[in-house]
Amino acid sequence: MTAYIVRRLALMVPLLVGVSLVTFTLLYLVPGDPVQSLVGERATPQMVESIRRELGLDLPLHLRYGRWLARTVRGDLGRSWATHRPVMVSLIDRFPITLKLSVLAFALSTLLGVTVGVATAVREEAGGDHLARWALLGGQSVPIIYLCLVFMYVFGVWLRLTPVSGLGDGSIRYFLLPAGALGLYTSVYKARMTRSAMLEVLRQDYIRTARAKGLSERVVIYRHALKNAMVTVVTVLGAGLSALLVGSVLTETVFGLPGIGKLQIDGVYARDFPVVMGCFLFQAVVLSFTNLAMDMAYAWANPRIRFD
Amino acid sequence: MARHPAAFLALLVLLAAGCARLPAAIPEGSGVWRGCLNRNPVTLDPAYVVTLLDSSICALLYNGLVRFDESGRVVPDLARTMPDVSADGLTYTFELRRGVRFHNGRELTAEDVVYSFRRILDPATISRRSWVFEAVEGAVAFNRDERTDLPGVRAEGSHRVVITLAWPLAHFLSLLAMPAGYVVDRNEVERHTDPRDYGFHPVGTGPWVLESWVPGAYLRLRANPDYFEGRPHLDALDYRIIEDGATAVAEFRAGNLHLLRLGPVEHAVFQRDPRWEGFLVGAPDLAVYYLALNCEKEPFDNVLVRQAVNHAIDRQAILEAVLPGRYVLANGSIPPGLDGHDPHLEGYRYDPALARRLLAAAGYPRGFRMEIVQTSSPGVLQITEPIQRMLAEVGVEARLVQLESGAFFATIGDQGNPDCFFVSWWADIPDAENFLYPLFHSRNRGGGGNRARFSDPAVDAILDRARLTLGAAERSELYRDAQRLVFSQAPWVPLYFPINYLACRPEVGGFVACSIANAQKMTGVWLAPPPAAD
Question: Which domain holds residue B313?
């Protein structure tokens, strides 16, 4: 197991270099000039030239990448071209916001998704099952941005139960609405996957055996069926968590939460290369670790999986 | 409504004065202003400010020698009075107010002014606004690193600043009122290992002091108790950064914002709602929206083609449908309210038959194909799609190309060569010069502002002369002439001067909407105790 983890961590190095190389190249292929958004109107060619030199844009591509890599290896992600804020500082400032939002939304969506999934599977084809499935279909069809606004008006403006938007003092109540909307939205897929995995497991012989030997329905469902269905579900949960942790651009934008997703999209619009590179690298690291954690979770869900 | 701009603007001024409901004694410390910004400020260092938003926040933190008042006139700021100007218009002598202190308590002296201006021109700073001081004696060479001294700006004693220009420049004082003219504290700038970090820790002399700034989330400014014009009425200004328009509306409706900038859709909704009657403030923006025709590129290098395109588009019909009550039809580039605006300037009337004849005369009897480049901002298509249809009627097949704004500005600047594009121009200063010289002087073709790449020696000559002309009446006559000459050659299809509407909560008093971003100092604004909940 330890050897496996070490090997996975070592593999991250070429992965990150690969990601950075691809991102770097893509960024330079994107049309649009980073200097243009910095100088505004009435730029003299001389000013544009000075800024190019300052940013190292006058160097050939491989030299620019080499410079960036050399600095990054030393732990320096550079500074934003637009604001001049160190990229590392921005990432450190913003990740807790994304983390808080992700964890809350993940907890909510998992709780909701797995519960609904199990409940509908157990009562297959009953009225409640049909209703729930329609509701899920509906939930998946509503754009997240709309869901966010509905939540905002219902809970924030009319009922005044929560703040409407914003980070406020960073306390948990400011995250309730965005996490609620995001959690509800992401629970749908989880519910559907749980339901189908459960249905498959519930048809297995060992479930019939469990019931035949007189185990209570609760034990059959939760200890025998659900744990086996979890192998599929864990995959979905893992992918879902990764997707949340790299930042939810729309939710963050609508609710005015300056998370990683927002940082990245602003960086892309401003052609702020150091910021975009920093975000991609950071996300690659987060994804790698989440995937590793999920692989560990497989071993827990399915003891037949071995890491050697 | 838009046909009578003068009357309409007078009405707006009335509206602007009208938010205050209780003219009772204004309590000092009347609360915390809750505003919103539609974007995170990029920097609060005057040397790097290029956006209107950054400019409006810097206005709260800093002062220049002079500033714009709410109507856009230049008035003394750090200077005690308007400067003495020598007869040749080359030497400006400013006497500074005494006892003005930076937020850190240090007293401002003439040396600080000299340092701040030098810093903008210093090649090592790479300021985005060095052009503001280009008329100052020695500035160009100093900025190019060809000389190490800047003779044009000097301190005489502790409270006198003398600026000499290399050539007279009528609107020089307006330039000084821009953020580039704000005075910073040298110690505060140089305190940081990387001087660019100063932009996060600005220290000025202004009525507000930056207390905290969480990028992307909010800015909090508190009243400067020692402000030289007296402490502002409000205790603090809280600006939330809310990029999503729908979110801002929700926050405003929940009572969490005092002021809301209304887009066309919300404007219509609020206008129909009787509860907001009397609380909508309108102000014309100093800006112009237009369709630029690339005068260096076929077929738009032919003036007949450009005129034909102008005649082919029914601007009034489009604007009335898309922006009712929110525009003044533009026939030139100088907005109403500025000296040099010409209410008698005739626009090209909508006449598709004439357009077809002009196209035939230009050698395009069967029209041609073209591209209209535009951003993907909301509302743009509503204007360009009808234009596309109208052009089709005269045989011109226009393709709409939507670009994200970074790519858009690269394309219309020096890196592309588009046929035609939809864009706007926002004033740096409330002066006709700003709506002609950068936009039409051949020296500024491309990224310099003249994006239509228009070039006419006669226009250049008038614009050069107007910049040197000091008499106001003569100057505005020159600008009117230049504008007439430019638009007779139709480098643009001028569309409109926008009118901006704000919804203002009933408890707000003393708020005046300003057309120029950095005129708003927020010192006169106060809040009445909130009325009973509705």
Answer: 287-498
